[in-house]
Design goal:
With 289 residues, the protein is an alpha/beta fold. It has a single domain, classed as Rossmann fold (3-Layer(aba) Sandwich). Helix content is 43%, strand content 20%. The chain contains eleven helices and twelve strands. Strands 5-6-2-7-1-8-9-12 form an eight-stranded mixed sheet, sandwiched between helices. It has a two-stranded antiparallel sheet with strand order 3-4. A two-stranded antiparallel sheet has the order 10-11. A hairpin with a 6-residue loop joins strand 10 and strand 11. Helix 1 crosses helix 5, helix 2 crosses helix 5 and helix 3 crosses helix 11. It is globular and about 65 Å long. The two termini are 35 Å apart. The protein binds adenosine-5'-triphosphate (ATP). Adenosine-5'-triphosphate (ATP) binds next to helix 3, strand 9 and helix 9. Belongs to the Mrp/NBP35 ATP-binding proteins family.
C-alpha cells in the first residue's frame, strides 16, 4: 500500500512490529518490488559522487532521448533530498493512484513515463531530514509501488553520494547498471572515485563515466572557456579501466530548458549540449542492445 504522506512513512518505520510481522512485511515488499520491475528490460542507475554536477539533467535528457528513439522508457526520481525531475519535465500534478493503491507514472508524449518520489511529499519544498531506516523504508516502498507496465529502459535518478540512500536503491534494484556523472575539476573527481569504488563494492556493473559542464563556447565571440577545467572525466575513466561515455559542454540552454520543464534534447536539438549528448546516448545503448 502506498503511503499518503511522509509522516505516515515515518510512523510506519518508527513502529515496532514483532519479528514475524516484520519478516512478512519485508517479504511482501520484496514481492511488490520484483513485480513492479519485472517487465523492464534495462535499468540504468545514474549516480554522482557529489550533488550539483548535473545528474538529474543527464537522467532527464537520457530518458527523453531514449523515448524519442522509440524505446518505451521510464524515468524515476529517487533523489529524496533534491527531487528535481518533476520540474525538469514540466510535471504539474504528480500523483495518480490506481484502485489497487499503485502509483501510476505520468505519461509524457507516447513513450515516456515519469514518476518522482516528490509525489509522496506533502509540500514540494519540504526538506527531508529523517534518519536511515525511515529513508530506506520510504525508498523501497516507493520503488515497489510504481506500476510501470512494459518498458525497454528505466532511468533512475539516484540520490547523490555513496551513503545509505544510494545503497538502498542498489539493494532494491540490484540488476541496474551505473552511469556515473562528474564535472571535470579535481574536487568532483575525488568524489567520482568514491562512486566507482561504491559500484565495485556493491558489485554493480558500470556502463561508464559522463563528464558534464565541460568547455563553454561563448555565443558572442566563440571563445572556448573551460569553466571547470576539462578532460578530467576521460582521464579518470582511463585510469579506472572504465568506458568514457562522452563530454557534455556547459550550455546555458540546459538551465533555460530545466526551468521551462522541457529537456534540452527536445527543446533545442541543435544546442551544443544536445549534439554532444547524442554520443553519450549511443555509447550507452550500444552496450545494452
Ligand atoms: N551542461 C550543463 N550546462 C549548463 N548548466 C547545467 C549543465 N548541466 C546541469 N546544469 C545546471 O546545473 C544545475 C544542477 O544540475 P542538476 O540538478 O542536473 O544536478 P544534480 O547533480 O542532479 O544536482 P542534485 O544532486 O543537487 O540534485 C541545474 O541548474 C542545471 O540546469
Amino acid at each position: 500500500m502506498l503511503y499518503d504522506s511522509v509522516d505516515q512513512a515515518k510512523n510506519k518505520s518508527a513502529g515496532c512490529p514483532s519479528q514475524n510481522q516484520q519478516a512478512r512485511q519485508q517479504q511482501q515488499q520484496e514481492e511488490m518490488i520484483k513485480k513492479s520491475l519485472s517487465r523492464i528490460k534495462h535499468k540504468i542507475f545514474v549516480l554522482s559522487g557529489k550533488g550539483g554536477v548535473g545528474k538529474s539533467s543527464v537522467s532527464a535528457n537520457l530518458a527523453a532521448s531514449l523515448a524519442e528513439k522509440g524505446y518505451m522508457t521510464g524515468l524515476m526520481d529517487v533523489d529524496l533530498h533534491g527531487p528535481s525531475i518533476a520540474q525538469m519535465m514540466g510535471m504539474k500534478d504528480l500523483l495518480d493512484v490506481s484502485s489497487d493503491q499503485k502509483l501510476l507514472p505520468k505519461k509524457i508524449g507516447d513513450n515516456l513515463k515519469v514518476v518522482s518520489i516528490q509525489a509522496l511529499m506533502q509540500d514540494k519544498d519540504q526538506a527531508i531530514i529523517w534518519r536511515g531506516p525511515a529513508k530506506t523504508g520510504m525508498i523501497k516502498q516507493f520503488i515497489g509501488s510504481v506500476e510501470w507496465g512494459d518498458l525497454d529502459f528505466l532511468v533512475i535518478d539516484a540520490p547523490p553520494g555513496t551513503g545509505d540512500e544510494p545503497i538502498s536503491v542498489v539493494q532494491t534494484i540490484p540488476e541496474a547498471k551505473a552511469v556515473i556523472v562528474t564535472t571535470p575539476q579535481e574536487v568532483a573527481l575525488a568524489d567520482v572515485r568514491k562512486s566507482i569504488s561504491f559500484c565495485k563494492t556493491v558489485k554493480m556493473e558500470t556502463l561508464g563515466i559522463v563528464e558534464n559542464m565541460g568547455a563553454f563556447k561563448c555565443p558572442h565571440c566563440n571563445e572556448v572557456i573551460e569553466l571547470f577545467k576539462s578532460g578530467g572525466g576521460s582521464m579518470t575513466a582511463k585510469k579506472e579501466g572504465l568506458k568514457f561515455l562522452g563530454s557534455i559542454p556547459f550550455d546555458t540552454a540546459v538551465v533555460k530548458s530545466g526551468d521551462e520543464g522541457v529537456p534540452v534534447v527536445i527543446q533545442d536539438k541543435n544546442s551544443t549540449f544536445s549534439l554532444a549528448f547524442k554520443e553519450v546516448v549511443d555509447n550507452i545503448t550500444k552496450q545494452l542492445i
